[in-house]
Amino acid sequence: MTNRLEGKVAFITGAARGQGRAHAVRMAEEGADVIAVDICEDIKSNPYPLASPEDLDQTATLVKDCGRRILAIKADVRERDQLRAAVEAGLSQFGHLDIVVANAGILPMAMGDPQPSDFVDATDVDLLGVMNAVAVSIPHLADGSSIVVTGSTAGMMPTATTNSAMGPGGAGYGWSKRTLIGYVEEMSLHLASRFIRINAIHPTNVNTHLIHNEGMYKLFRPDLENPTREDAEPAFTFFQAMPIPYIEPEDVANLAVFLASDESRYITGQQIRVDAGSFLKFPDGPPSSM
User: Fold this and answer.
1) Strand pairing of 70-74 and 197-203?
2) pLDDT at 153
3) Is the pTM of this model over 0.85?
4) Closest to 236 (Cα-Cα) out of 271, 275, 273
5) Known catalytic residue: 246?
6) How far apart, in whole angstroms, are the C-alpha atoms of residue 70 and residue 32?
7) Strands of 141-150's sheet in order across
8) Dist CA 108 CA 119 (whole Å)
């Protein structure tokens, strides 16, 4: 099926690479124009490099290659005024807004000298960033629009899993993702009278920079001093019920297209896992001996 999003406009955060880029491209392939934002600079507490302006330019090129329009803007999801300005610029160019994908996220792993501010940075991006994106969009969304929030299976696991293994930043990530579950369910009730639906997608490990970094490799291979990607992938695979190390960004984006389309018009307030069975295999998180 094609053109499921024909005539719609999607506002996507964290769009420069990874899951955000996959959302932008898949929605463009289905007919949507895109307002794409990304911080395009590093956050000090986050140990792996974040996307660059060149990454955002590449996303724009890929969307245009699909024959769709895109407005790509450097903006920080922690700053509501920046997101509001991006949405208003998109409205000026495209005329309306139908889809929100609140996707931007970071995972400041416990490396070096963990600080309480790592928790703040994680929650500012992973929780407040989502709420900011939704807040600036709601006044402009047409009845029957769709909001998709990026959660994580980590948000469904016990607090101790993220607190002990990943330090303040990891705890902030897990707490944010857990809090988003209630946020999505509550918002679904308040938006229902306008047939605006909001749902969360909870992926397992995704093949992006968020898992391909030293901190994540050490989490899954604590038995090695300097584990590599090749060292970590068997542990990633063990974590899934299906024998894969991680899913691809497009696996998440395919579900987001469905949730953004009119095919899901009565689906709201849902927590949908795309996790290859990992949560059911390890509902309490990866074994500490892994």
Assistant:
1) unpaired
2) 94
3) yes
4) 275
5) no
6) 9
7) 70-74, 33-38, 9-13, 97-102, 141-150, 197-203, 271-274
8) 8
